[in-house]
Amino acid sequence: MAEKCFKSLQILVFTFFMLVFSTVVHGQENKHENIEGHHEKTEEKLDPAKIIMDHIKDAHEFHFFTAGEFHATIPLPVILYSENKGWSIFSSSRFEHGHASYNGYVLSDGVIKAEDGSKVYDFSLTKNVVQMILALTVLVLLLTGIARKYKKGYGVTSAPKGWQNAIEPIVTFVRDDVAKANLGSKWEKYMPYLLTVFFFILINNLFGLIPGSANVTGNTAFTIVLGVVSAIVILASTNGHFWAHVLWPPGVPFLVKLILIPVELLGVLVIKPAALIIRLFANMVAGHIIILSFISLIFIFGAMSKGAGWGFSPISILFTVFMYFIELLVAFIQAFIFTNLTSVFIGQAFEGGHDHEHHDTEVHHHDVATT
């Protein structure tokens, strides 16, 4: 069984390799006319960095592979507004993958610009946006379906069925090792948010591993929004006791307070959200860059010698398979880390909540002993 799964993964990775870098194979040669009008072939220099970044950044289409002049893509809607032309709605296929202009607009390095230089407001459904909508749809359908099963008694009065078996251990893990461990008696209040963040990041991480899909969690706009939302939840959870310690730390010399207060404010308003934003973005981008770099080595060696390219291919594919397994693990780890750090920061915002929890525990034990 394990051998069969390994072979299937090899096929998946090889397919990924063919889909992603088939554009490189066909882009190696370019024809131009000499003085006598004859066509000559010139080789373009391979630029792995550009290829990798093109596949990581956002785009106006889902690109799967290129075969000669044929591009296997799914074009997405382009929605633009400019003061000169007003609203314009059309398919991104009109740009012919950046080789043509349409209605006074051009697509250059993934950015739509007006040919007359006027300001353009882009409200298009890019592949990051579409994939987030798909991830949100999967999240809602999956969890509401499981919730309906619990209401019917499955998993309560009888054994769980279907996706309940996979999701219930994860929910229990987030409840016991994230929410209860960091939030004490207030864990129930924040469980809906923590579960939503965890599963939303996880689903987008897993979607990003599908060849041709978007690396949504490796986009700064995505992680910034998540970080800002978490920062709002953290700040909304603070109390007067917390701000008293931040704005005037007790038991600290006056001159040290002048240094400590700005540092504390910076930590609450900037550093904590930045830790959430940068950690998720950097880890998800790094994994994709490493996988694409291993595949690029085939073409780098192939540019020097075809024998070297073919000879290094098995090594590159093995490393890619290994990294793919690591990325599957990282998809879960990064969802957990973001959720856990958010929970830790919320718990710190209570500033004294654990003392109250300890007091409630003592009262509970006293009541049990009395009974």
Summarize the structure.
The protein is about 65% helix and about 10% strand. The chain has about 375 residues and is of the alpha+beta class. It has a 3-stranded antiparallel β-sheet, with no helix packed on it. Strands 1-2 form a two-stranded antiparallel sheet. It has a two-stranded antiparallel ribbon with strand order 3-4.
List keywords for this structure.
globular; 371 residues; alpha+beta; two-stranded antiparallel ribbon; disordered C terminus; 2 domains; disordered N terminus; 10 helices; 3-stranded antiparallel beta sheet
Structural commentary:
With 371 residues, the chain is an alpha+beta fold. The protein folds into two domains: 77-124, no CATH class; 128-363, no CATH class. The chain is 64% helix and 12% strand. It has helices spanning 2-26, 48-56, 127-151, 164-183, 187-207, 220-236, 240-247, 254-304, 306-350, 353-370, and strands at 29-33, 39-43, 61-67, 70-75, 77-82, 86-91, 105-108, 111-114, 120-122. The strands form four sheets. Strands 6-5-9 form a three-stranded antiparallel β-sheet, with no helix packed on it. A hairpin with a 2-residue loop joins β7 and β8. α6 packs parallel to α9. The longest helix has 51 residues, at 254-304. It is globular and about 70 Å long. The N and C termini lie far apart (55 Å).
Strand order in the largest sheet: 6-5-9
- The string of secondary-structure elements, in order, is HEEHEEEEEEEHHHHHHHH
Outline the low-pLDDT stretches. Answer: 1-42, 353-371
Helix content: 55-70%
Round the Cα radius of gyration to an integer and report it: 26 Å
Overall average residue pLDDT: 80
Largest sheet: 3 strands, antiparallel
Secondary-structure-based class equals alpha+beta
> Count of DSSP helices?
10
Strand content: 5-15%
Shape: globular
Number of domains: 2
